[in-house]
Amino acid sequence: MSGLTGKLGKYQNEVPSLSSVDFGRYENIFKVYTEPTDGKQFYFYNILNKIEFPQNLDSDFFDLHTVHGRLPLTTVSHQLYNTMHNWWILYLINLDVLRNKFYVDGGIQLKFIKPPYLGVIFREMTNSTVFGNRHF
Description:
22% of the residues lie in helices and 26% in strands.
């Protein structure tokens, strides 16, 4: 593939020579590209891709969580989802509160996707149309 604008690749879980990634991991949202060099195969993500949540998502998908004490988003993710790997969802949904921080001060309320709806949201992200390297 020449450059980052060529044909779409495959998801990491579809490439037998790469290790499998859990369904909800950020890395599994984007496709892997490949570039053969000197007889070796190199895989990479297009780091220009990003995810933006639309403002009109159904409020039934969300709830609020008050953080007790200053905590990293990985810890809050573990408290809410039993995995630290969903920190990025908390970050993206709460950009207006977090700005450029990856921790939360005590007393702050975060919006989060209710656990039963995570699968639906992940599927929609991977099935979404990509416009200018942005997933909606």
